[in-house]
Design brief:
- It contains three helices and eight strands; from the N terminus they run ββββαββαββα.
- With about 180 residues, it is α+β, with helices and mostly antiparallel strands.
- The chain has a domain of about 110 residues.
- The protein has a two-stranded antiparallel sheet. Strands 3-4 form a two-stranded antiparallel sheet.
- Helix 2 packs antiparallel against helix 3.
- The chain is rod-shaped and about 145 Å long.
- The mean pLDDT is about 75.
């Protein structure tokens, strides 16, 4: 850098060199030496990092690849969630069915016990006061007071419910993943 200074009327040319340690400023802001050395970034799909000693270059995925990967993972998670929801709904339905069958069996067991207790008091046929009525969708009814038919129907319904209960419980156990 050259400067001219007047020394007693005569012009004097002095050459000065800028101090390399002194901070440099551009538009009143210090210059960042690191940013001067960086190369301009390009919008490549992948960036290549330094090559490890024994292998190939390692590629960093681009934002587009990351978003695609994230979308795939989210879709897989959503599919898993839907499967779990369907499994939960199916399990809840089976448990309600099991509870209904258990209630029917319990009612039939109490029904017979109550009838047997009443028969001890009256010392007669313990199905004597029972009435069995079956009604269909058309309004037709079948009614009987025959103790043999009532006993057979109660036993048959209890047996059918017990068998169905075993099936439903097996289904519940098989629904739950191990």
């Amino acid at each position: 850098m050259e400067t001219k200074a007047k020394d007693n009327g005569q012009a004097k040319v002095a050459k000065t060199v800028a101090d390399p340690k002194a901070p440099q400023f551009v538009a009143g802001n210090p210059v960042n030496k690191v940013s001067e050395k960086e190369e301009p970034k390009t919008e490549d799909k992948t960036q290549v990092q330094a090559v490890p000693q024994g292998g190939e270059a390692v590629k960093e995925p681009s934002k587009i690849e990351i978003k695609a990967s994230f979308s795939e993972k989210m879709a897989a998670q959503k599919e898993i969630l839907e499967r779990h929801i369907r499994l939960g709904d199916e399990l809840a339905r089976k448990i309600r069915h099991r509870d209904n069958l258990t209630a029917i069996i319990t009612t039939l067991d109490k029904f017979e016990l109550n009838l047997k207790n009443e028969s001890e008091e009256t010392e007669s046929n313990y199905y004597q006061g029972c009435v069995l009525t079956i009604k269909d969708d058309n309004g037709e009814t079948f009614t009987t007071k025959n103790p043999t038919i009532i006993k057979g129907v109660a036993e048959q319904v209890g047996s059918l419910c017990s068998d169905k209960l075993k099936e439903v419980e097996t289904d519940i156990v098989n629904l739950i993943p191990a």
